[in-house]
Amino acid sequence: MATLKLLFVLLLHLLLSCNSQALLPINVWPIPTSVSWPSPIAATISPAFRISAPFANKHLRAAVKRHHRLLFSERYHPIVPPTLPLSPTPLLSLALHITHPLAPLHHGVDESYSLTISSSSGRANLSAATVWGAIRGLESFSQLSWGDPPRIATDLRIADRPVFPHRGLLLDTSRNYYPVEDIMRTIAAMGANKLNVFHWHITDSHSFPLVLPSEPNLAAAGSYGPDMQYSPEDVEKIVDFAMSYGVRVVPEIDTPGHTGSWAGAYPDIVTCANKFWLPNGAGDWANRLASEPGTGQLNPLHPQTYQVLHNVLRDAASLFPDPFFHSGADELIPACWSSDPSILSFLSSGGTLSQLLHLFLSSSHPLLLSLNRTVVYWEDVLLDPAINVSSSLFSPATTILQTWHNGVNNTKRLVSAGYRVIVSSSDFYYLDCGHGDFVGNDSAYDVANDAGTSGESWCGPFKTWQRIYDYDIVEGLTEQERKLVIGGEVALWSEQADGTVVDGRVWPRAAAMAEALWSGNRDENGRKRSATATDRLMDWRHRMVGRGVRAEPIQPRWCRTHPGMCNLNA
Fold first, then answer.
1. Displacement of CA 273 from its chain's centroid (Å)
2. Are 455 and 436 in contact (CB under 8 A)?
3. Where would I find the Beta-hexosaminidase eukaryotic type N-terminal domain in this sequence (predicted)?
4. Cα 307 from Cα 346, distance rounded (Å)
């Protein structure tokens, strides 16, 4: 038996020496950029184990407390238990060393860290440039532990940093409401996956759940009810909670489109509000009032529009301290604006719909800049074929554009114009796709006529974790253009989702993007590694479920306990 154990250790040593990204006895997700574990060994964690973090701010203190508690409460039992020799010396301490403890959690902050765990001394060291890198390292440290009583991998070194600085999840809380607890659980899971931007698409035509001090009637009349609103105290709680996970909260107040919910409080400033979205039927798509049920666009010609708008933007900026502010500007529908008499008169006098958008953005964009915000818009603002503005309206230095159409082609068009880009291609990163459509009395779903739809949504099919993992968001770009792609976001639009299903819709597919944007989707030889990631993602999903996140399974459990048997090729 002793001979077999020795052979196992020697074989493991050989594998890890040849390939730093081989499947380890215990793994970290996302896989770190560099792992050195030449002599795999484990140690028990002493009951007196402590984490020292001098100069920690309150968010790091919360993270230290959380991870210390997790080490002894998680009791993680891997599907395939690690078989490692055990050091006689227990792990006694983890010391944090931070070079720049006051660096704020802003875009581009240094999230790198290095971690060493020694079996001989019983001590571990975590070094990071910032608090936020230390939080990333604490997560990796916790994932190296397992068992009851707990033990941890030792005699290893991790050096880790992200490939992309912006790694996010968009959650739409307008179409359906999500309780605060569901949002916080989602953010906690984001932190565990080293995602760092919660893009909160908080308002839309369907509801306005955000309570704003200067405009309380918007939520009073535009939300689904008083129990489905987010108060300023809720926002403060969520933002502060997110920071303890190293997650920024970026609000999106979508304007001037997607604003039907504003009409409850201010009917005069919203065109085509609460009208049937296809007035002439599905056969006349060109004259639709919205791209889905839920009509309404702010009227750029009404003077009260800007009074209300400015109050909304100022209040929202005060609630959300992040330097990024998403202002939407997507899916403007010509017929909605044209249905308003004042706009129709403007068009009859030689004006254009694009001039209306220019007029609107000429008011909102400077205001956001005066609030020290970098403004984010959807790509439509420049690329929509019917209603768009010239790139001369806003500088690439103050504006970021987010893609959702046409894959890498639209990314190429935007970076070629000099803009920084966030990638959210609906062909790869939309988590709501493939669950069918939500409109009623649709004859396409009749059994006799179903062949053309296969029950899919407009952006079907379902985006598998493999498709998400394999997407190269900088494909086809020059080296200089690649530098302008700051990262990506998966998106969960909530026509058919709410807090009851959010875990399974998001996880573990968002984890696939998290690794692709943190350490890449290729191995050291340049090969896509989605095939070799399967077992690791199985393990990580299993661990997430144990932590209270109801992530979907990606294979039968049998596959993990029978290595190679579920592969397509032997």
1. 30
2. yes
3. 28-144
4. 21
Q: What's the pLDDT score for residue 285?
A: 96
Buried b or exposed e, range 481-508, using 16+ CB within 10 angstroms: beebbbbbbbbbbbbbbebebbbebbbb
| 267: nearest Cα among 305, 230, 293 | 305
Q: In this structure, which amino acid lies at residue 105?
A: L
Is the backbone of residue 436 left (phi > 0), alpha (psi -120 to 50) or beta? left
Residue 146 confidence (pLDDT): 97
Round the CA-based radius of gyration of the chain to a whole number and report it: 25
What is the SS3 assignment for 57-77? CHHHHHHHHHHHHHHHHCCCC
**Which residues, in sequence order, are CB contacts of 270 under 8 Å at separation 6+?**
259, 260, 262, 263, 296, 297, 298, 299
Would you list the DSSP string of 283-330?
Answer: T-GGG-SSSSS---EE-TT-HHHHHHHHHHHHHHHHH---SEEEEE--
If you average pLDDT over residues 507-519, what whole number do you get? 98
How far CA 55 is from CA of 64, 98, 124, 398, in Å, comes to 12, 8, 18, 33
Q: Is the pLDDT of residue 394 over 60?
A: yes
Reported as type and span, the H/E element at residue 151 is strand 151-154
Tell me the three state secondary structure of residue 239: helix
Q: Model's pTM, two decimal places? A: 0.95
Q: Is residue 18's pLDDT more than 60?
A: no
Q: Which candidate in 74, 292, 331, 515 is catalytic?
A: 331
Angle at 426 between CA 422 and CA 432, to 5 degrees: 115
CA distances to 90, 296, 410 from 382, in Å: 59, 21, 10
Which amino acid is it at 384?
A: D
331 in active site: yes
Across the chain, what does the average pLDDT equal?
Answer: 94
